[in-house]
Amino acid sequence: MHTSGSSAKAIQKASAHLTDEPIKFPTCLLLNHKSPTFFLLTSHLYVYDDMQLGYSDWVDQEPEFSSKCFHVDNPGSICVALLPLDGRVITAKGIIEGGVCDCLLLTEKEMCFMEFKTNATSTETLRILDNAAKASEQLWHTYNVIIRPRCIDALKSSKELELLYVNFHVVFDRDLEVTGANSSLMDLQDQFLKDKKHSLFFDYGKTFE
């Protein structure tokens, strides 16, 4: 599945206006003192799925395996919280049924749910589409079934509310050149946006302003 970098950027730019209105969330619920959360202030972050640790981790220098990373460009060095959901934050058997996405990046303005498919090696279109569909289901289940209901319950008593934009990212190995500019993945993105009212991206990085 092949596309140019300029085409991928054009698709992202064109879809940016489709992002829905921000949603109120009690960030204190997500960032309580018991959560194994990493608070990051560096200008560049490389987030990846660590198979040995069993959960998502990060480094602030470009690693040799950068093709398997989600690059966070943070020019203002704002505070970015990384919550390694799968295997670390969310582990209860009664909760993980249905799937948990790998991690969540959280700022004062955004919640970015991420699922890594960087262990996939096939470039066959059907294989990629299957991985993409499964990843999108995991992302939505994590948000809509696990995170969102608990935040709604907390809204009743919490005074620490933030308006946050919510978006979803599927990350393949960059060497496979899988991006949302592919027509089949564009269809999946369009359907996700129509059904869920949130944006789904197939990309390798993001800039936080």
From TrEMBL:
It comes from the Bacteria. This is Uncharacterized protein.
